Amino acid sequence: MKVRVESKSKQYDIAFGAVEEVFREYAGILQNRRAIIFSDDNVWPHHGAAIENALKPYLAGYAVEIMEHGETNKNMNT
């Protein structure tokens, strides 16, 4: 499932669903590109392996950045 978000400066999609399904849907965009995956220290231990395994067939490379959990850590300074 996709939700279209429109801001003053741009539009973008947020995709929801099983990790494999989401990445398969965006395969054409992801193919042979590099990405940075942002997650937090609560989510990554539970879902990181599934995300990495789902992305590997598509990406040329990626890096993972883990942030501390919590809303106070979700800003441009972190």
Give the helix/strand layout.
Blueprint: E1 2-6, E2 11-15, H1 19-25, H2 27-30, E3 34-40, H3 44-55, E4 61-67
Parallel strand pairs: 3-4
Antiparallel strand pairs: 1-2
Helix pairs in contact: 1-3
Question: Could you characterize the architecture of this molecule?
Answer:
The protein has 78 residues and is of the alpha+beta class. Helices cover 29% and strands 31% of the residues. It contains 3 helices and 4 strands; from the N terminus they run E-E-H-H-E-H-E. The chain has helices at residues 19-25, 27-30, 44-55; strands at residues 2-6, 11-15, 34-40, 61-67. The strands form 2 sheets. The protein has a two-stranded antiparallel ribbon with strand order 1-2. Strands 3-4 form a two-stranded parallel ribbon. A hairpin with a 4-residue loop joins strand 1 and strand 2 (11-15). Helix 1 runs parallel beside helix 3 (44-55). The mean pLDDT is 86.
Produce a short descriptive summary.
By secondary structure, the chain is α+β, with helices and mostly antiparallel strands. Helix content is 29%, strand content 31%. The strands form two sheets. Strands 1-2 form a two-stranded antiparallel sheet. Strands 3-4 form a two-stranded parallel sheet.
User: How many strands?
Assistant: 4
Q: How many whole angstroms does the radius of gyration measure?
A: 14 Å
| Alpha plus pi helix count | 3
Q: Biggest sheet, strands in spatial order?
A: 1-2
Q: Based on CA inertia axes, which overall geometry fits? A: globular
Poorly predicted runs of 5 or more residues: none
Strand proportion: 25-35%
Q: Indicate the structural class.
A: alpha+beta
Q: What's the mean pLDDT score?
A: 86
One letter per element, helices H and strands E, the order comes to: EEHHEHE
